[in-house]
Amino acid sequence: MAERIEPAARVYADALYAAARDAGRTREVDADLQALLSQLSENRPLLQALANPAIPRDAKKRVITKLLEGSEPLVRNAVLVLTDRGRLPLVADTVFAYAELAAAEDRILTVEVTTAVALDDAQVENLRERLSAAVGHDANVIATVDPAIIGGLVLGARGVLLDASVRRRLEDIRRALIRTPLPVGSEA
Description:
By secondary structure, this protein is an alpha+beta fold. The protein is 58% helix and 15% strand. It has two domains: 2-104, Peroxidase, domain 1, CATH 1.10.520; 107-179, Glutaredoxin, CATH 3.40.30.
């Protein structure tokens, strides 16, 4: 996920995180941001209205103020700033970027693991323990399946990708075969 977050959203998340850390409210802000994202994802018409450029910003700000009535003031103010700047479509990326910052503070590393076949709970737990020991943080493993990788696994965390899949190895062999000059004539 990390590599897909819009860079501008990271700027807003960094500023919000700094303010929340200074106020000692990082977890509360994270919880309210997750709740906001959940509300928006469950209410498609609301999401479309907030993304609609034809609706005036003042109307959007009233809706957001009402929506975030019981939330942390930092969350409400941050979303209102996004609205003022016409950056409301960055809300989801800002939430994800903030969650990464909060997880780093809690020393939790989220690792996306892609395999060709589904992993059972014991395998995921074993992988989580091994990753936790290797990186010195608690690992949160998100397992997905992609049969196209044929075998092996692909690990992704904080923008770093480790591809140990059979598909990648086969691609490396294909490239090597293409680049390797073949002997001609009497050299063969």
